[in-house]
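Q: Could you fold this chain for me?
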Amino acid sequence: MASSRVSMLLVLALLMVVSAVYAGARIPGSAIVRVADSEYIIPIECNDASQPEQGFSTEPARITKERTGRTSGVRLTVRPWKETAYLVISLDRYVAWAESPAASGGVLRMTLNMSPASLLVDGTQKLLTYDEWMAGNRPAGLDGVMFEANCRERDPNAPAFRSGVQ
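A: Sure. Below is the predicted structure, expressed as structure tokens.
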């Protein structure tokens, strides 16, 4: 009787350890990113397959290169911004904060204007902050950036690039 309880406790402990290890696992997906007339299809890693608004980022370049022999043309990161209803979106050296829309079926679509993540102020590089963004103190950067992140599945063609897209 005592040995079966010990065995059961060991199994439960093992399940908890395995769950904790896999809880941090990232889910493979892909994103389409359109900037002006350029379109990038990039592999992403999501925190939650059904809720991309919980955060995702471009798969690390080394892993993509090893897996496909190609690299992504852009680096996209989306994550919740602190304890707010906003997301912070980074695309290469550009940034934006936007209210977090609900994803639909594991797909998040957004179109937004982005500003340079840093600017030169009195000869010194300064990062653009959330407070400055909210106050409207943001320099012009990229207009009409669109992305569609799919955390349910990865496009087998990712990474890919097309120009002349409307």
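A (continued): The helical segments are 2-23, 61-68, 130-134.
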